What does this fold into?
Amino acid sequence: MAKNHPYIGKPDYQFWNKEPAIATGEKFDPIVKVSFSLDAEEPIATAGSCFAQHVAKELQRVGFNYLVTETPHPIIPQPIAEKYHYGAFTARYGNLYTARQLRQLLERAYGRFDPVERAWVGAGGALVDPFRPQIHPGGFINDVELEADRTKHLAAVRTAIESLSCFVFTLGLTEAWVDRRDGAVFPLAPGVAGGSFDPDLYAFKNFTVAEVIEDMQWSLAFIRQVNPAAKFILTVSPVPLNATYMDRHVFVSTVYSKSVLRVAAEALTEVFDNCDYFPSFEIVNNPYHRERFFAEDCREVRPEGVAYVMKLFLKHYANLDVDLIEGEASVVRREAAKSAKAIASERKAEREERQRLRAERQRQREERVRQRELAKQEREERRRQGQQGRRRPDGKRAEGAPGSAQARKQGGQTVEPAGKASKQADDFLEEMKRLNDILCDEESISNS
Amino acid sequence: MTAQKLAVNESLCAADGRVLVLGHSHTNSLSLALAEVPSSPFHVVNINTLEGATLTRGCLLRLGKPAHVVSMVGGNAYYQVALLEHPQRLQVLGGPEDADIVPDRSLIPYGMMRDFLLQACRGHFQIIERIHETFALPLVHVISPPPLAAEDISDLLPPDYRDRGASGIVPPGLRLKVYRIQSAIVREFCESRSISVIEPPAIACDARGFLKHEYRSLTATHAGKDYGTLVLNQIMDRIDG
It folds into this structure.
């Protein structure tokens, strides 16, 4: 008699012993369907725990439209911007470890919650933002600067919510520290990176499944209210807890927290359409790779692990093949011929732009030399005619007064360009260098 | 002695007793002052007049063995952001007591401005270190003069830049704030390397800390001959002290 039970005819991925990754770890792919696709142009915002930073970095690296709404002044070069955590997330919110933090960030950005705690005193007396205590190395110089930065930050959060197409949120923790006065949740315990711990003011909280679901449901519903087309991808960070305040082993607390978050994420995919759970936690913790994805401390995720997560993410959401080569991922677009042509075209345009800039700089150098020679000739002519080239007593230059330098190899004192910056900032800094060169040339001519 | 182009050769190595002043364009104020002094122990070298406008160790060694060495290296890095307005106008707080923020300017936090200027001064610091390492002498560094107080200094700019008017020039208050951040960075650098510092002469600065009009040079970013005289006296006082 033929067997007749509900497992007959089910796909292989529903059976453990049919998993090909048991023999070959690289075949592990637990994603069987996704609700939507992503294209390279649509703005993707990220937030969440420290693992979310990896997601952000990889999306940028493979050329997706990673949304960044909070940027420094364009004059600030990229290395300094990175030091101050611009671009690590869509806005400069730092790690959002808990669902309550996300909810309160949205409430603060839209004027629905104004916490009592404004600033903590950090090292050296500088101030830190209690809700982003590590975002600004060295701290803010005073509360005016902190509040101005916070205002700019919350405006950037609003811009992010209103302009994103897809929001990728990585749930990290259930444990947090709460202000007893108004329920404000901090990403770090007071005293760790600023402030001081006062048990009368701050309390420990370990969020339950119901609380996480409620906070996430509120947050996603709020985002949809502001941005009805927003798509969501939820993921649980595979990174274990750094510490637990519960009186039990940190690994036990880790499994509790990750379980709560996993259940909550699942529940949310049933509430919202176009809301997927992406199994980052499962991918990194899978048994088929024999724990190759964790670093020596058994906590940090190796680059290979991050790359594997992103490989599967891009495969399923963007129809991209990503090859893992010596620990780094390189993207091979399925439409290889078209992409290669586009890349070659871009590189040619960049080469031509660099050549144009070099030619322009050379032209300007030659112009400066020519101007200096002209001025020298004018000066000598005036001397012959007995004219003075100095300033009039009223401080204005006399007509035709010398304005150029004696000949020398380089103009002006060497001002170190402040590193790589946006093109506009580069152009501005180049212009300032030229101006400084000319001023130093003119300064030297006053000796002649 | 004038800041003419110098060929670095053995004839430059004067006798001991020299006060060797090495720097960039701010040395011009000293050179102008020294032009009216028939003889002095000062030997002023504008690095930009050297071959290649660089100060290699070889160049330094060929300058002989002075009795004293003074640095006037750099000083104008801050003008990258403190002379002409960037299209996205910026502002910065000058210190913990400063609460002066205006709504139509982008605030660059103090720490970031410090990092920006640190990077801009890096090359100068390398030169100062090279000078310090080459001469087995205590080094003195002269802090560059403060900016002018005038709102509109466009007439002190090259002709191509004079049409900016006051609205294209960074406001004097902001100029001074950025100058002070740079000066603080320079002092910290010098202190970390046991290099003593000579501050701008107080008499040349107004009550707010700007360079007085009568001490300026012909350009927007330098001090003049009378300022140079004051600095020469400060150097001599430091040596004698």
